Amino acid sequence: MAGIDVLVVVYNKALAQSRTVATLNAPGDARVHIVDNSTSDYGNRQFAQAKGYEYGDMGGNAGLSRAYNRVIDMLDKDDGLLCLFDDDTEVDNRYFEALKKAAEAHPEIDVFAPVVTDQKGIMSPCILRGVSCRRVQSLEELPERGVSAINSGLAVRRRVFAHYRYDEGQFLDYVDHAFLRDITGHERARIHVLGDVVLRQSFSGSTRQSRAAAMQRYRIFKKDITYYCGKYGISPVLRWALLLRRRLRLLLG
User: Fold this and answer.
1) Per-residue pLDDT for 241 more than 90?
2) CATH homologous superfamily, domain 4-113+148-186
């Protein structure tokens, strides 16, 4: 198997404080790329260079899809792997070993997903119905169709990107679901789940925010979900229902 590229997108955080960077333990021959979407200088360029990481500054928050494409455009488009991470994921020390074994055993598979948990349980993989993501209690609940996953921890064959780039109209939310819809059709058989590897996510949607930050987050979500539904022909009723639930949580929180 060809090599591994690791891409970590950091947002308004010092790399020295990133759980992902602290627990990454990437193989020695892996190329680690840091793409910085921060709106202030956290000294991340110097930190990355000291670690031997490749560093790219987006000059502010350019969105997740654009950050991904910056690195994708530089990759060899072979059967090697690109591993995607947020800056707040605790990486299981078995992740890369399990990934390598799975990739060698399943050369026909393009997408590999670990189990990702937060304080509520398994958050990825999940079941996607329309615009609603339903958690599972065990991997046995995953159906043949409708399987999705979050970006962080996802590993993708670099050959996929010979003819694919992330849609930069999708800024942050549903970037992962749009990608898996395009590449796998959300079919269970086309996503290899690394069932014995568990990553821990400090998911921003599960933490308390100031009212101003929460409102800004809601505006981003509203724009992204509207774009997603329009692109894939999903009923606006489902979009309105999801936005109403989000808005009520915001008002009552």
Assistant:
1) yes
2) Spore Coat Polysaccharide Biosynthesis Protein SpsA; Chain A (3.90.550.10)
Q: What is the pLDDT of residue 51?
A: 97
> Domain coordinates of the chain in residue numbers?
4-113+148-186, 211-252
The rounded mean pLDDT for the chain is 95
Count of C-beta atoms within a 10 Å radius of residue 43: 10
Q: Is the pLDDT of residue 182 over 90?
A: yes
Is residue 88 predicted with pLDDT exceeding 60?
Answer: yes
First to last CA, the chain: 49
pTM over 0.70: yes
Q: What does the pLDDT average to over 117-131?
A: 97
How far apart CA 46 and CA 158 sit, in angstroms, is 28
The three state secondary structure string of the chain is CCCEEEEEEECCCCHHHCHHHHHCCCCCCCEEEEEECCCCCCCHHHHHHHHCCEEEECCCCCCHHHHHHHHHCCCCCCCCEEEEECCCEECCCCHHHHHHHHHHHCCCCCEEEEEEEECCEEEECEEEECCEEECCCCHHHCCCECEECCCCCCEEEHHHHHCCCCCCCCCCCCHHHHHHHHHHCCEHHHEEEEEEEEEEECCHHHCCCCHHHHHHHHHHHHHHHHHHHHHHCCCHHHHHHHHHHHHHHHHHC
What percent of the chain has pLDDT above 90? 92
Answer for the pair 118, 201: CB distance below 8 angstroms, yes or no: yes
**What pLDDT sits at residue 204?**
55
